[in-house]
Design brief:
116 residues, alpha+beta, Aminopeptidase, 2 helices
Length: 116
């Protein structure tokens, strides 16, 4: 499931997106999240607003209880954004994904729904 963010002044231009994947229902009610904002729109509040709205949709409208974000430790802006939106670090996912031909570790951040 993917949502797109548009610039109000130029509604034809996508400036960011957030996606939910690996959605597990039943006793789990959890998923993973990925997000990105175009570089020229960073540090302007768009990412936080987008992430907060997306988290509310996935938890309230879809009943998801737990959302996981896997973030490279060096991705300071993403780490900061996740923290501002209520994510907490839970541990290291060793060799989580191959990037540029090498397996990389990511920190797993978790958001637990405050709406349930």
């Amino acid at each position: 499931m993917r949502y797109f963010l548009f610039d109000e002044r130029f509604p034809q231009d996508i400036i960011g997106s957030v996606s939910f994947f690996n959605i597990r229902r039943g006793d789990f009610e959890q998923c993973c999240i990925g997000y990105k904002i175009d570089e020229e729109y960073r540090h302007m509040g768009y990412g936080r607003r987008m992430l907060e709205l997306a988290l509310k949709i996935i938890t309230v409208d879809y009943g998801i209880h737990r959302v996981e974000a896997y973030i490279l430790p060096a991705n300071t802006p993403s780490v900061r954004l996740a923290g501002q939106c209520g994510f907490e670090p839970e541990g290291i996912a060793k060799g989580y994904v191959r990037m540029h031909g090498e397996w990389t570790d990511h920190v797993r951040y978790v958001y637990i729904s405050r709406y349930q």
